[in-house]
Design brief:
alpha/beta, Rossmann fold, five-stranded parallel β-sheet, 8 helices, binds NADPH dihydro-nicotinamide-adenine-dinucleotide phosphate
């Protein structure tokens, strides 16, 4: 038996899971069921205590790429296999979101939106792709797609992660010196880092102030990576041109938060790459089969660092 917990589109998730796992009984909190029969949980944004009744668990599936809400919690033991989604339709959406952010500044669409408010017809000189240096922090399932696809479009791309990899068309840097190099040479800095103790507060005044004058921050990873007051200070003093933010701490973004009304902040409600139930359920079904047969699914979370 698999227990499903999602806050939205529950019926679509049920249909998708039943399509890909036809032999499995799928239950939700609306059903009467015996928790002792539950072997698997598939969930997103699990509330505190969700896993506590399930004492016979064989595995948990995070219905997203980030697993920060599944680690370091008292109701889920570290020895229960935890599997996350790898891409599952999210990488393409992420590429689209980043491309939209980059084009917004490259082609001055943010400026034209403000000029329209003043009914002002004023043409500025657009920049070429080669003039837009991009920095991608985090080169995992999503970051690699973003970095490579934007490099293929002709943007100069630097990427940053802890261990070196060879990524065609992308200059991959590591370590603190690598981060410094990426930040100093990024007209658009994009975070696709997981939420771990090392990445929380990483994008502080000290680091963001080293971005080139007029640079743009795009955060599609997790809100806790950015120090909000520091970002606002850099936008207000004119060092940064724009922040495109899809993720916040906390979420939903509170109504009194200054990001909402800030003229240099674009807010989207954590939609850069949404989980698509059908490709996700197909991946869950395959991972479940692999776990059941003692194999290792590709999305198995090996540490409990937060990714
Ligand atoms: P992965 O786990 O596949 O990749 C993480 C990358 O970050 C790896 O390249 C890893 O490389 C690097 N990394 C991890 N820790 C550090 C560190 N301390 N310093 C430098 N680099 C580090 O994640 P995904 O690409 O699948 O997803 C990335 C994040 O995007 C998710 O964790 C989630 O928070 C966010 N996300 C947001 C969505 C949205 O709609 N806004 C949708 C989906 C995901 P290495 O180990 O070598 O350091």
């Amino acid at each position: 038996m698999l227990f499903l917990y999602v806050e939205q589109n529950q019926n679509t998730w049920l249909e998708a899971l039943q399509k890909w796992c036809p032999s499995l009984s799928v239950v939700t909190q609306n059903d009467a069921y015996d928790p002792e029969q539950v072997r698997w949980v598939a969930a997103w944004n699990p509330p505190p205590g969700l896993f506590a009744p399930f004492q016979q668990l064989k595995g948990v599936f995070a219905l997203g790429a980030g697993v920060d809400a599944f680690v370091r919690r008292p109701d889920l033991a570290d020895n229960i296999p935890l599997v996350r989604l790898l891409d599952a339709g999210m990488a393409q959406q992420m590429v689209e979101y980043i491309l939209w952010s980059v084009l917004t500044v490259q082609r001055d669409f943010d400026t034209y939106a403000q000029l329209q408010q003043q009914q002002t017809w004023q043409v500025s000189m657009a920049r070429s792709r080669a003039e837009m240096r991009l920095g991608v922090l985090g080169l995992g399932a999503l970051g690699q797609s973003v970095a490579q696809q934007l490099a293929e479009l002709g943007y100069p791309v630097q990427g940053w992660k802890r261990s070196a990899i060879d990524l065609p068309g992308v200059d991959v840097l590591t370590g603190e010196a690598g981060l410094e190099q990426v930040i100093r040479h990024s007209d658009v800095l994009i975070s696709l880092l997981p939420n771990t103790p090392q990445t929380q507060g990483l994008l502080s005044y000290e680091r963001l102030s080293r971005l080139p004058q007029g640079a743009v921050l795009v955060n599609v990873a997790r809100g806790v990576q950015v120090v909000d007051e520091d970002l606002i200070r850099l936008l207000d003093d004119g060092h940064l041109r724009l922040a495109v933010l899809d993720v916040f701490y906390p979420e939903p973004l509170p109504s009194e938060h200054p990001f909402w009304a800030h003229p240099k902040v674009v807010v989207t409600p954590h939609v850069a790459a949404e989980t698509l139930p059908y490709p996700a359920a197909e991946q869950v079904a395959e991972s479940l089969r692999q776990l059941d047969q003692g194999e290792t699914p590709a999305g198995l979370v090996t540490g409990r660092e937060g990714y």
